[in-house]
Amino acid sequence: MVMSTAGLARERVARAPVGSFFRAVDLPGSRAGVNTALSRLRASGDLVSVDRGLYWKGVKSRFGAGHPSMVDRAIARAGSVGVGPSGWAASQALGLSTQFPAEPEVAVISAPPAMHGVRFHKRNNLARAELKPLEIAVLEVLRTYPAFVEVDEEALKEKLSALNKASRVDLEKVGRVALSEKSTNLRRYLGLVKSAMVS
What is the pTM of this model? Predict the structure, then answer.
């Protein structure tokens, strides 16, 4: 039996974990059918519309589904490939700072989208495309360390080691991509990544 566009969209949303983003262009079916399905899912409270053609799955509760953070929204809006937090947002994402930036910063390898309230930084290392947002955050922290970080080198190493052991970041992959970076500051602190891998 062939499932309708609405049925496919409902199934995809139901299977996805909370915090997932959906773009109309990523779902199967005609554009009109997908838009109608997403509109119905938004009306039922299964999705939240966060931007034109961009939806988010929150937690269904009597208080509403909530909203994604501005950083997560910016990463999704930028396309997620080679995209991750920068500045204070990177340090906060990695647990290296309690500061919440008034204007979140995000690093991208493609053309930055137009988005009010977020500062985008264009990076030219296309090897970043193989990294997850949290791994991009590691590169961004090392580019500017010790700025935007509230811990010393030993605590930074321990945090990176813990993230690596928990499989939240792949430090081997980060180190490989870092070799293509031109930042002298990042190269200066690349030893922290290597030592975190063995600690």
Answer: 0.82
